[in-house]
Amino acid sequence: MSEEIDVALPQTGIFALGNLSHSYLEFDLLAGVEPTALVTAVASLTEPRTTMGGVNLVTGFRPELWSMVAPSSAPADVIGFTSPVVAADGYTMPATQHDLALWIAGGAYDVVFDAAIGMIAALSQTVELVDETVGWSYHRDLDLTGFIDGTKNPSLSVAPKTVLIPEGAPGAGGSVLLLQKWIHDGAAWTSLDTKRQEQAIGRTKVDSVELVDRPETSHVARTDQDDFGHMFRRNTAFGSVREHGTMFVGFSAEQRNLAVMLESMAGLTNGLRDELTRYTRAVTGAYYFVPSLDDLEACASPSDS
Description:
This protein is an alpha+beta fold. It has one domain (12-304). The chain has helices spanning 35-43, 63-69, 109-122, 159-163, 186-190, 194-201, 219-222, 225-228, 255-266, 293-297, and strands at residues 21-29, 55-61, 85-86, 92-93, 100-106, 127-136, 175-184, 232-233, 236-239, 244-252, 280-282, 286-290. The strands form two sheets. Strands 1, 2, 5, 6, 7, 8, 9, 10, 11 and 12 form a ten-stranded antiparallel β-sheet that branches. A two-stranded antiparallel ribbon has the order 3-4. The two termini are 32 Å apart. The mean pLDDT is 93.
């Protein structure tokens, strides 16, 4: 008989498609609180192998903080978003790293709201809430440009092998999360006709077919996963009619895939800046390590395990 191998289980919310309402909460550790206390409190929020009150929860930690608490379960060379990405012309993707991110998703905002209030209260002795963004599904699979988002995502049957750290490596079953808030210049974008929008994106608008003659400055060309590495995108729209945009939520087994994508968008790889960045700007930027359920459960207080 072959020896059975234990496989680390990922946080299931990474792959829980179809949720219409989202809350992205970012926190900083309170002065005097040990990182271990925070990780224990987060791990004890709920029994980690189930959803909580009808919502899916994904928890991520500043990589350096997780490494301090669980060094044997931390992937090597993963760091926080400590420096902005600056293009040659000054266009900047800022670094706004925090200590903890909670992504709460559900079928309706009332259950997401209730869960968020409960989690914030449960963590109030360890962290302070410093950023909150409410996300929502826009026509199911569109972003606010009117184009289909996540076309290059791997299928759910393949995604775990693509974006989770493999077995045998530190942090197995975990993933690196890039979380960024992008505000759109809706007036400038909608002033473009469909053809010009398609040239900026690199795909057709109606059916998301990649253009044969896509410009090298198009968004598709500057973020081509075949060139820069694979990831799993769970983006949502956010904001009001006055200010709105895209919450970029990208998971990868390797941080470098995410970092190189941003460098390419800024034109740092070959001098060609992503045309889409002429119509949208990042206002936040942080990396978080999303540990496996097993590693997270191991940090829960004994009474919760």
